[in-house]
Amino acid sequence: xxxxxxxxxAEMLEFLSRHFLVKDYINLPGYKEAVGxxxxxxxxxxxxxxxxxxxxxxxxxxxxxxEYHFTCSHCQxxxxxxxxxxxxxxxxxxxxxSMEEKDDGHDG
Length: 108
Ligand SMILES: [Zn+2]
Fold this sequence. Notes:
By secondary structure, the protein is an alpha+beta fold.
C-alpha cells in the first residue's frame, strides 16, 4: 500500500497528467477521461464518500423452533433466516459486515 493519501494521489495524477504524460498520451482515445475519472474517484475517497467494505460470511446452521439460524463469522451474532435453509441476509444486522466472503463450507 502506498504512503500517499487518496487526495495526494489524485493531485499527483493530475500533476503528472498536466506536465509529463500529456505529450505522450494526450491523443489516446479516452486518456483525459480516464485520468479525470481516476482523480475524481480518489477525491471522493479522500472526502469520505466511500468506505472500505468489510466482509464476513454466515456460518453454522441450526434449526431453532422451526427456523434456521446462522452465525456471523466476524461478530458471532446469530439470527434467524426464517424457513430458508440458506442465508437470506446479505449483511450482518449486528456488525454490518457484508456477507459476500466465501463461506467455510461447514454450514450444512
Ligand atoms: Zn456480524
